[in-house]
Amino acid sequence: MPHFIVEYTDNIADQANIRDLLKKANEILISKSTLFPTGGIRSRAIQLQDYYVADGTEDYVFVHATLKIGSGRSAIDKQTTCEDLFNMMKEHFNKIYNERYFALSLELYEFSEAGTYKFNNIHQKFKAKNL
Asked: Does residue 64 contact residue 46 with C-beta atoms inside 8 Å?
């Protein structure tokens, strides 16, 4: 962990450069490697084809991201991480925001490690490099 999951409406697929957004998110999370092991970072996007926004009278756009992390980080570390991600998202989508009716959101989901199951050998690579 963490996992950064982005849902976005398909009516911005050509403008959104989602792959670049995911890369930027990973760079932010990797920069916080004392909080989040690099081998556990995952970013992914889901393009939504079935959605309805507000009253449906416009070609509305939305992007919603969820940052899923295990418990144990301080309130300030969680706040700083979310602010860094959200500021990056606002900058990334600034052009679309200025041209369209656009809603952008980010939520933090913190869960207990109890009940999660993991099988991951990626961590070994980064532990060997001290990353």
From this structure: no
Active site residue 2: yes
Q: Which domains does the chain have, with CATH numbers?
A: 3-128 (3.30.429.10)
Contact 69, 1 (CB under 8 A): yes
Catalytic residue among 2, 8, 24, 67: 2
pLDDT at 130 over 70: no
Alpha helices in the chain (DSSP H): 13-16, 18-30, 75-92, 94-99, 122-128
Going by C-alpha positions, the residue among 48, 102, 40, 94 that lies closest to residue 67 is 40
- What average pLDDT does the segment 99-113 reach? 94
Q: What is the mean pLDDT of the chain?
A: 93
